[in-house]
Each structure stands twice: as C-alpha cells, then as structure tokens.
C-alpha cells in the first residue's frame, strides 16, 4: 500500500495493521519523523521523504491512498497513479468537496483554503476527480459520501443508499477554522435530497477507482459506532453482492469488541421463542469470520410508517400504529424486577421499585426505527439485549422518548404521550437518569469527537452573532464627539495611528465626552489643550492608566470625559496615539499590568477586567 502524506500517524498505523507493507510518502521531513516516532513498533511501515514527482520511478502497489494531499496538475496525477498502481490495483481518494453545503453555510475548508473558489485550492470537485481517474485509465469508480466529512466520519453513504434528512443532523467538525452558521443545514439538505442533488452538495467524497469493475461484495452504507468504549465499538454495513442481493453486517471496530459482536448469535437463538409469543421476529443472523451477518428484508420501519401517516395528516392512524406496537411490547412482561450488580453497572444505582414487571427479552432498544414492517414485525437490531432483569416500563419509556426526540418534542410532549401511558414526572426522571448512565456506560469514559470539538474548536457563530461582530468591528474604527449626549462629529480612523482634532465648546454645554472607538484598545499620549496650550483635565470611563502615558480601555463604549466648567466658547485640540485596537492584546496587557501593580484600586479594576473578559482570578482569563 502507498499512503501519500504522513499527516496522520494514527491513520498510518491503522493501515499498516491491514496491509502486508505500507510505504508512506511525504516531502515534509518533520511529518515523516513524527509519524515514524509514533509508529516505531510498526516494522512494516517504510517512510520515504520525497515529493510525489521524485517518487515517479517507484514500485507498483495494490492500493494507493490519497487523503488531503497537495495536488499538482491533474495531468501530472494521472501519470503518477497509472505508474504507481498494479494492473489490478486500486486508488482511494478522500477529498473535500468545494461545493459542499457546509462551505456555503459558513464553514471554511479545514486544511487552509479560506476563500471559496480560490484557484489554488487543493480540493477538487467530483467531476474533476472523475476526469483524473479517466485520464489515469481507471474505468470503474465507486463514489461514496462521508458525513459530516472524510476526516471525522460518522456515516458513509452511496448513490445506492442516500441519507434521510433526519440522519443529517448538524455535526460540527470545524476544528481549525472558525465558522459561521448562515442557515440550517439539515433543512437545506432535506430539500436537496428531495430534488436528487445530494451528490453535488455532499461535504466530501471517497472515491475508489480501479481499471476493472469489482467482482467482490461492495458496501452501500456504513455507520461508524466507534466512539464507544473499545469493547463495544462496532461498524455496521449494508453490503451488496455482484448479483444485486444485499445483507447487513456488524463488525467489531477492534479486537476488544469481538465478544460483544459475536454474542449476537446466542441472542438470536434465545430471542426467537420469546418474540414468537408477542408476534415479533428477530432478524436472522449468522456468524462469519469477520463478524455477524444479518438477512436483508425489504420494508419500511415502524418509525417511517408513522412519519408518513403524520405527513399525510393521518394523525389518528399514526397514534393507533404506535398504540398497537406498545401493546405488543407489553406482552414481553417477565418476572418481577430485582436490582443486580450488573444492572447497576450499566444503568446506575437507581431506586427502581422492585417487584414491577421486568422485560422478558432484556432488549431495551425496541425502538420504532428498529422494527421493520415486513411479513409481520421484525426486530432488525437487538444489540442491546441484557442477561439481567430490566424494568419493562423503562423499555416503554425509551420508545416514547426517542419517538418524541425524532421530532424535537421530548421536552414538551405536546400530544401528552407520557400522560397517556401513565408516566409520572417522577418516573420519567428516574428513567432519564438510567438512560444517562447507559449512554455513559456505552462510552466507557472514552473522549468522543464531540467532546474534542467542544474543547478544541474555535467555534461556530450564529448569523446574529456574526452581524454583531461585524457591527462591533466596524464601530472600533470610528471616533465620535458628543455634546450633551448628541454626536456632533464622527471620524473614520481606519489605518490611522495618530488622532488630532478640534472641538468648540458651546456656551450652554454641560457635558462633553469623546468616544475614541467602540470596544477595547490602548491609547498613548492623550492630550486635551486650549488655544493657549494649557492642558484641560479629563477622566477615562471604562479605562485604566497603564505604564507611562498609556491608557487601556475595555468597556463597550469607552469615553474620555472633559470637565466643561470655564470652557464655554473655547476651542480645544484633542490628540492621542493609537497603540492597539485588538481586544485580545488589550485584555492581556491590562491584566498582566494589574497583576504586577496591585495598587490604586487595582484589585477592584482587576476584578472588573476579569468579569468583562469572561473569567475570574481563580479560573484564569479567556
């Protein structure tokens, strides 16, 4: 295998675990050294520090991987790929789509390009990629659509299995570039899917190219559940055989998860007689060398049927469908619930009343989207089936909760489903705690991508916040003079380092102040004089005297206030030097100064500054 680029040592190690040998090609010596250091134990990784064109006379490979690499001219790549790849070899290209919807909604390309349409962008459109492979002699190209992107993928779709709107919930992945939310991406994707344009607006592509059409089974859809604890991390795939038939498989994401996956075979055998009594059927599964294979069954899920009825205005029929299903689930009532150590490990040490009916099957995931309406009702997913007693009421609660959650109504419950099925607020609170413990148990303390996003991302700004920032930044470039609260002069300071202006004090003015800018900044050499050169006293508002003749201003509307007594009819000259209009620089400068100079009310000023900049003395500054 040839991996072009050593930017991700973790990816290199993963590939090495699945290849006889991997050559990692990169022209950045420091990236090669870092990857080699992290993968020191991987003897079958060979690092080459050359440019792609320097490596043009290299050996041929079974698989060439291109992921976020600097792309030279398409014609150059075509020749290189043809040279590198064996006759039966393949090329996998992972690339961001320049027409990806998140780009239009305000998320910049992560790897450097900051302007849409920039000619030097490394990313290529789907049409350009197809042309590249055509020129390289690859007649077969399988196209996949990773979501939310190819770097932090949660699911992978294909032309044969496109996503549903509800699956494309906003999943932020801007780890290096700040982003702006200009519109609701899920709503926009819904319209795009209806009109058949998802391939054009997918955020990224995975393209698998070969010279001949593949004869092996190929994936149509992949769901990554690998952010769980290692012993519960799995991959779910919908596969298609060359004859067009399909099946579903669950694979362990690592060796630690193999027992979790393979125990599904025993669960299937145990559930068959139990579900038969309730008119349900577990989907047929069999063990394979890699994981578990499930039979493909055509049909709609119970959730899909209910949603279709609701959209057609047939709410009563949708309610009847749910009620009928809940009656079936209640036929799975088993013996009295007893709390066990295994139960407490998964669901927490909660005070569930003992003696209430437990679930006969132990499956807490009998949700409508796991029930297929085909020749009866088939349970297509029974991964979360437990061998210890679980309250049946908790299973019913989860069915209602996630039915409401799909519509964003889990908090309000406008139709009163909880009340209809006898769930008190206390009981719901108890089951909510159980669900929270279950989700934490799934993760096993693992730090998820979403956790990393919250801690590391520069963040996304709403449209309202962005407009406020724009107005705020624009205001920082204007100086204003006020007489009795009325602005009599406005001057743009953009690009200026010195300010020099004149103000005439009217005879009836009682208040005179100057707003040097809106927001934070540092000024030096503030001088206010009359025509005779005498200094006129002034006071800062939301300002602090720093070293020498510098003042730091940190309020939203800082002011230089001038005492008007005895100034009626006089002309004043006002001047200062602009040191900084950068909010961060001002914050750091003022805070460091005050921490070193705890005097003249410094403690009070320091507290105000920390409050303004979003922190406190105990927790540090933002």
Question: How would you describe what is shown here?
Answer:
- It is built from 19 helices and 31 strands.
- The strands form 6 sheets. Strands 3-2-1-4-5-9-6-7-10-11-12-15-14 form a 13-stranded mixed β-sheet, with helices on both faces. It has a 5-stranded antiparallel β-sheet with strand order 23-22-25-30-27, with no helix packed on it. Strands 24-31-26-29-28 form a 5-stranded antiparallel β-sheet.
- It has 3 domains: 216 residues, Vaccinia Virus protein VP39 (Rossmann fold, 3-Layer(aba) Sandwich); 146 residues; 137 residues, no CATH class.
- Helix 3 packs across helix 5, helix 10 runs antiparallel to helix 11 and helix 18 runs antiparallel to helix 19.
- Helices cover 31% and strands 26% of the residues.
- The C terminus is likely disordered.
- It is α+β, with helices and mostly antiparallel strands.
What's the short story on this structure?
The strands form 6 sheets. The chain has a 13-stranded mixed β-sheet, sandwiched between helices. Strands 23-22-25-30-27 form a 5-stranded antiparallel β-sheet, with no helix packed on it. Strands 24-31-26-29-28 form a 5-stranded antiparallel β-sheet. It contains 19 helices and 31 strands. It is of the alpha+beta class and 622 residues long.
Across the major sheet, the strand order is 3-2-1-4-5-9-6-7-10-11-12-15-14
Class derived from helix and strand content: alpha+beta
The amount of helix comes to 25-40%
CATH superfamily of the largest domain: Vaccinia Virus protein VP39
CATH topology of the largest domain, anyone?
A: Rossmann fold
Give average pLDDT, whole number: 86
Question: Separation of termini?
Answer: 45 Å
Based on Cα principal axes, name the global outline: globular
The number of distinct β-strands equals: 31
Instruction: Please state the oligomeric state of the protein chains shown.
Output: single chain
